[in-house]
Write a structure and sequence with these properties.
3 domains; mainly alpha; Ribonucleotide Reductase Protein R1, domain 1; Fumarase C, Chain A, domain 2; binds arginine; EC 4.3.2.1; 6 strands; Fumarase C, Chain B, domain 1; 19 helices; two-stranded antiparallel ribbon; about 450 residues
Length: about 450
């Protein structure tokens, strides 16, 4: 097999090196970007008079034929061609002959790969964004459907204060909203076109890089040729964003898993989105949530891997950088799957109103409200807190809820209590009085839902 560099080498490439060095097994997924980039480059070479317009046409047609061959499965990917760039160029030579060699004028694989991978991850980032928007819609629908269901809110996984289930769901809306805007920021920052940087130093040819940028849908060309071929920040940045999305999904998964336990039983999963056990007939397992939680590990791992690969790499291109792809491809593939399956599952979740209602009776969720009552009647909050602590331990001993106490029992702890205390501390009041901006009251949650809808309309 002939190599591009064979004229200056005296021996054939070792077979093991060939296998070790090749990236074709995983970079072939960038064929579309490679072909698009080459077409844009050839058009620019034609426009600048570096190649003739006939040569440009031949090259472009050849490349389009290769695209077809790849898409209908007749293209043969070979390890000895090393990577997608060389594979396509070799096939182009087979189709159009020596003129194919003109395509690589004023170009290096270093700027070519920098372009391809950048275009690929930008394309995928846009798909991830779309999936997140679908996810947000599912969260919104569910929040509206269960708008007034009250659940216990937790801190330290201990019952804390009552909140609306929709308020809890809308907390996730905020997280994924930030993730969507992170992707937008990423798309802005990575909107620079590296082709034309050459191997590292630019080129002696009279290029029009702005034209190539425009052809490929970028706002502008990159400004420094060395940085253009050395930069993999955009992969790290998307890997980081995917890690944050994955972390958010993992937290949500954990809650789904907890809510599905017999101990909680707050929600039911649809049979189509749960699995059974091969031995225990009573089991219904939240595998989706568990696997989504589990995949966070490899996604973080991919981020750590590329950060570590790039650490201490001197400028400009080094072969180490071929290791940039598999990790981000894996993270992209997995996060897309995770988002889609998670929101499909979430969409079919049903809420066990009775179970949730029962759970509200225990745990003294309205204790803070009793303390707030005292504080609003002039008792310093620290003292009110102490009084309510005594009330809670009294109720624990009697095995009753705070609202089950009679007025005279209340007054044994403080003279300040009046008849209105029982009404003040109903669970509904505890929720709806939390009307401070961003709080859990139904009014606030309706406002959040309204804002969320207008956010989704703007993207
Ligand atoms: N397959 C290589 C990569 O993924 C392409 C760039 C190779 N450039 C070079 N000078 N060896 O990084």
């Amino acid at each position: 097999m002939k190599k591009m560099w064979e004229s200056s080498f005296n021996k054939e490439t070792d077979k093991l090196l060939e296998k070790f060095n090749a990236s074709i097994t995983f970079d072939k997924r960038m064929y579309e970007e490679d072909i698009k980039g080459s077409i844009a480059h050839s058009r620019m070479l034609g426009k600048q008079g570096i190649i003739s317009s006939e040569e440009q046409k031949e090259i472009e047609n050849g490349l389009l034929q290769i695209k077809n061959e790849i898409e209908n499965g007749t293209f043969e990917f070979k390890i000895e061609d090393e990577d997608i760039h060389m594979s396509i160029e070799k096939r182009l030579t087979e189709i159009i002959g020596a003129v194919a060699g003109k395509l690589h004028t004023a170009r290096s694989r270093n700027d070519q790969v920098a372009l391809d991978v950048r275009m690929y991850v930008r394309k995928e980032a846009k798909k991830i964004k779309k999936l997140l928007v679908n996810f947000e819609n599912v969260i919104l629908n569910l929040s509206e459907k269960y708008e007034d269901i009250i659940i216990p809110g937790y801190t330290h996984l201990q019952r804390a204060q009552p909140i609306l289930f929709s308020h809890h769901l809308m907390a996730y809306f905020q997280m994924f909203k930030r993730d969507i805007t992170r992707i937008d920021d990423f798309l802005k920052r990575s909107d620079e076109m590296p082709l034309g940087a050459g191997a590292l130093a630019g080129t002696t040819f009279d290029l029009d890089r702005h034209f190539v940028a425009q052809e490929l849908g970028f706002s502008k060309p990159t400004e420094n040729s060395l940085d253009s071929v050395s930069d993999r920040d955009f992969i790290i940045e998307l890997g980081m964003i995917i890690s944050v999305i994955s972390m958010h999904l993992s937290r949500f998964s954990e809650e789904i898993i907890i809510w599905c336990t017999s101990e909680f039983s707050f929600i039911n999963l649809d049979d189509a989105f749960a699995t059974g056990s091969s031995i225990m007939p009573q089991k219904k397992n939240p595998d989706i949530a568990e696997l989504v939680r589990g995949k966070t590990g490899r996604i973080y791992g991919n981020l750590m891997a590329i950060l570590t690969t790039m650490k201490a790499l001197p400028l400009a291109y080094n072969k180490d950088m071929q290791e940039d792809k598999e990790g981000i491809f894996d993270s992209i593939d997995n996060i897309k799957l995770c988002i889609e399956i998670f929101y499909s599952m979430l969409n079919t979740v049903t809420v066990n109103k009775e179970k949730i209602f029962d759970s509200m009776k225990y745990g003294f969720l309205n204790a803070t409200d009793v303390a707030d009552y005292l504080a609003k009647h002039g008792v310093p909050f620290r003292q009110a807190h102490k009084i309510v602590g005594e009330i809670v331990s009294y109720c624990e001993n009697k095995k009753i809820a705070i609202e089950d106490m009679t007025l005279s029992e209340f007054q044994n702890f403080s003279e300040i209590f009046r008849e209105d205390i029982q009404n003040e501390i109903t669970i509904e009041n505890c929720v709806n009085k939390r009307n401070s901006f961003g709080g859990t009251s139904i009014q606030n949650v309706k406002m959040q839902i309204k804002n969320a809808k207008s956010f989704l309309e703007t993207i």
